[in-house]
Design a protein that fits this description.
The complex is a heterodimer. By secondary structure, chain A is mainly alpha-helical. Chain A is built from eleven helices and four strands; from the N terminus they run H-H-H-E-H-H-E-H-H-E-H-H-E-H-H. In chain A, the strands form two sheets. In chain A, strands 1-2 form a two-stranded antiparallel sheet. In chain A, strands 3-4 form a two-stranded antiparallel sheet. In chain A, helix 5 crosses helix 7 and helix 5 crosses helix 8. Classes of the chains: A mainly alpha, B alpha+beta. At the A-B interface, helix 3, helix 4, helix 5, helix 6 and helix 7 of A face helix 1 of B.
Chain lengths: 197, 151
């Protein structure tokens, strides 16, 4: 019985991030912002590592009206660069620095990796449909106008119409960059999503 | 929710994933709240001479309680700039832990009536006691009721 407890305690892994100074250098966050973020991170993940379940729970708290689990899953995979199934504070904060304070190109690259679910460098209609459906689920019943089952498919057709320049049913990184980079609405929207702590 | 507030930049930033497929521009960011910095303020709670410190938003997690609401302002001492409570500091530790972790523990060596009274004072409901301590708490409660009936 005692042995069971010892074994159980042994498997609890802890992770300590690199020093604050290193992270100030490697990210676009201030010292104070990193402190606030690390405290929030440790509060939810006392071991210093976030797994997908925790990640989903945190996400769900921001979108209580919809089902955020699918979108959270795709975002988690994009942050979990080495596909270890866990995210350390560095992975988290370096990824966050890119998507909240990076250049337009860096942000678009992140979005491309999010849509490219299998990581083969191309976005298919199926992949795009999965992502668009996940976003509709996240919005839940507050989506406007009200959505039905065909909406994500129709939506994906519209997006492909715009981005699939050579009409081969696939969106490459080049096509994605060309169409999104030229789009004023996208450039402006990308800029409003950062938060200063 | 308070500790989750630190994840807000993340929830917002991850929304850039929607931008390329969005049909409308993103709305402008909400106006910054005036007390934004205050939300991260550290405050000192003096319980019969023993000093505890915590973040304001740790307490605001449970707004129905004394510490989570403005009820605590009745106990603020302007001279020492701290909240003062003429209560039991040993039991208070468990109440503060509840705000930090969301789990309420029952210290077996404490008298159940004294414990219940502190919970009542701070407006923390005993029905949120964690599974780890719930059986102990219930047993002690039952014993105590039987004892009172015998008298």
């Amino acid at each position: 019985m005692d042995n069971d407890i010892d074994d159980f305690e042994l498997v609890v892994t802890r992770y300590r991030p690199e020093g604050l100074d290193t992270l100030v250098k490697n990210t676009k966050f201030s010292r104070k912002e990193l402190q606030i973020m690390y405290r929030g991170f440790k509060q939810e993940c006392p071991t210093g590592i976030v797994n997908e379940d925790t990640f989903r729970e945190i996400y769900a708290q921001f979108f209580p009206q919809g089902d955020s689990s699918a979108y959270a899953h795709y975002v988690f995979n994009t942050f979990d660069v080495d596909h270890s199934g866990t995210i350390t504070f560095e992975e988290f904060v370096i990824g966050l620095s890119v998507i909240s304070r990076g250049s337009l190109r860096e942000k678009l690259e992140w979005a491309f990796r999010l849509y490219d679910i299998n990581g083969d460098g191309m976005i298919t209609k199926d992949e795009m449909t999965d992502i668009v459906s996940a976003i509709y689920d996240l919005m839940g019943k507050y989506a406007e106008p009200v959505i039905d089952e065909t909406t994500p498919r129709d939506h994906v057709e519209t997006v492909f119409e715009k981005m699939d320049l050579n009409r081969d049913g696939l969106i490459t990184m080049d096509e994605f960059m060309q169409t999104c980079g030229k789009d004023d609405m996208i450039s402006q929207s990308m800029a409003v999503l950062d938060t200063r702590l | 929710m308070a500790s989750v507030a630190a994840w807000l930049p993340f929830a917002r930033a991850a929304a850039i994933g929607w931008v390329p497929v969005a049909q409308n521009p993103m709305p402008p960011p909400p106006v910054r709240r005036e007390n934004h910095d205050g939300a991260d303020e550290k405050l000192r709670i003096n319980v019969s001479g023993r000093s505890f410190e915590t973040w304001r938003n740790t307490l605001e997690k449970y707004p129905d309680t004394l510490l989570g609401s403005n009820e605590k302002e009745f106990f603020f001492d302007e001279d020492s700039k701290e909240y003062f409570f003429d209560r039991d500091p040993d039991i208070f530790r468990h109440i503060l832990t509840y705000f930090r972790t969301g789990k309420l523990h029952y210290p077996k060596h404490e008298c159940i009536s004294a414990y219940d009274e502190e919970l009542a004072f701070f407006g923390v409901m005993p029905d949120i006691i964690g599974d780890c301590c719930y059986e102990d708490y219930k047993d002690r409660k039952r014993e105590n009721q039987e004892r009172l009936l015998d008298d």
